[in-house]
Amino acid sequence: MAENPTVKSNRDKFRERMSKKYPDHNFDDEEALYGQIGDDYDGYEKEINGYKEREKAFSDLFTSDPRSASFLTNWCKGGNPAIELVRMFGDDFVEELKDPDKQEELAKASQEYAERVAKEKDFEEQYQKNISETLSTIKAIQDEKGWSDEQVDEVMEFLVNIMKDGILGKFSRESIEMASKAINHDANVEEAAHEGEVRGRNAKIDEKLRKKTRNDGTANLSGKNGGSGSKRQMPDLGAISRYDGAQSIWERGGEKRTAYK
After folding, report:
1. pTM (two decimals)
2. pLDDT for res 74
């Protein structure tokens, strides 16, 4: 008879899903699980609110001037933005460009555009350089530690999640504690090594003392038979001093006991 396959509960499925998303978290603890769910919902709400604000801005723009919607639509379809502006706004747009009173504003806008493009180009060059170095570093670590591609993906996903949380101003307790452990790792390892070295020396000293006590033939000074020094001179107490404990009172006195019948 075939065994029935184990059916996972929705709770277990959700916990596994969260564990894949946050491999550094222990979701066997329900407080940690629900805490992370709350953090995720906060993040989702911020993202949704951002989408709503941008959507409202576009909606207000399109409502105020429907031509703007047509302009953006044609532009997204591959149209030339300058031509589409003329198509939508006609001579008004051309006249604005020729207006002497607007030349200063146009020059400023043109400068801002050039600076933005240059900055974006610089960022793009830096990104390409950095990502190339990062990929080389990941490959070296993977070869050195024997990580699988899945392990690399989990590590990078964890770092990306921290980066995303940082952009939103959100840092979980687990991430903060993990960062603290990483920062203090070398000091903790050094301290543990020092403590182990001290314990090792103390253990060797104790062992040497035990061996010396067992094997050096020295008498145990704490026992009743201990010590080999000279005997202490006791004061003369007369007859009491001459009592050695082995003779009876008659033998000590040199008398014979008379037996009475």
Report:
1. 0.35
2. 87
